[in-house]
Request: fold
Amino acid sequence: MRSPPGGAGPHHRPLRGRQTQAGEETWMPDTELVREGDNEHGHFRIERCMPVAAPLNPTFRTGLHRTGPCAVNVSSRNICEIGSMLAEGFLRYTNWSYWGVMTADPSWLLERHFWKLDYKDVSGREYRMLDDLILSADVLHLNSIRCWEFLKRLGPDLENRTKIVMHHHGANLREEPQIAEEERDAGWEVVVSTPDLLRVVPWAEWLPSPIDLEEIDGNYPQWEKPECEFVVGHGYTVPENKGTYDIMHIMEHCKRRDKTVRFVPWSGIGKRQSLWLISQCDVYFATLLYGPGVATMEALAMGVPVLASCTEEELEHQMAVLGVQTPDGLPWIYCTRETAGEWVEQLRTDPELRRVWGLKGRRYVEEFHSIPAVVARAKAIYERTQPCREVLYSGE
Reply:
């Protein structure tokens, strides 16, 4: 019994090899004889495949074995789609196996793992599935946190063997930048999802969040908007992280100045509803703090002009990453609390200005945030990363 090509090692279940007529070995599951005999058509033989566990790294490219490296991307519920989009991209554009594992449905790694609840898995089957998957990975891509129980269980097996990439997405890194330094010292590769985070970890690398342009183009067409109404949208989760109350104040002034302006804020809704609302906006007012996030990229992908702000230091990092010299070179409109209202008025009265900024934003997303672009960048990061020296576990 041997492991499939590319699958050698203690964490790959063996399959039985058979010789083809050309002398090449192909990999088939074990079988048992059910019935053998003769009938009017001649000799017959019926075999049944023996039950086997699901393959560790199945893809539509490689069937039961893998020919390239394997990555496992683990995320929590609020950013779970990043892993699934990267998995889609890696399976489509590379020879990698890629698993996006999340702590909420539809994954088998449920929220109960995160909260360490007793979920009557007496045999520990799901934990073994998770452990097998993690141990089979060449690259373990984590998102934001390191309190996963498997890091404590499997730490010794991963050290000096598995590459670990930590992908930071926001608040925790702004409040405690030293956590990224600890990860770097442990031999982890640290990447950030937005350029403003380079202000606190300038040595890290920017890995943009992927945007599924096929989904957006197919499902979220814009209205033929009536001339009598000009819609400005704003989505937020934590208002203090977006400057939401100041944005509301600015938009109240705009509405008083022009009755055709309609301000539509939203919070606490699902991604699909958020995408639909963004698609109906004439302008998306993203933030007055930290610079743009994923919703901004979704708006830009739809050709919706975006207003956003950040500190001067964060602005410098945004421009440096994109290689532009002035804020006018950015794909989104840089504004301040003082100029935001003026920008709303200019965009309302000038359809050509909206069209120009919409085209600029779409081109930017295609270049930096489309799934093929992000996959190419992530693959280069994975390939140059070295196995970790230490596995960190926060226990919180």
User: Anything to note?
Assistant: The longest helix spans residues 351-368. DSSP finds 14 helices and 15 strands in the chain.
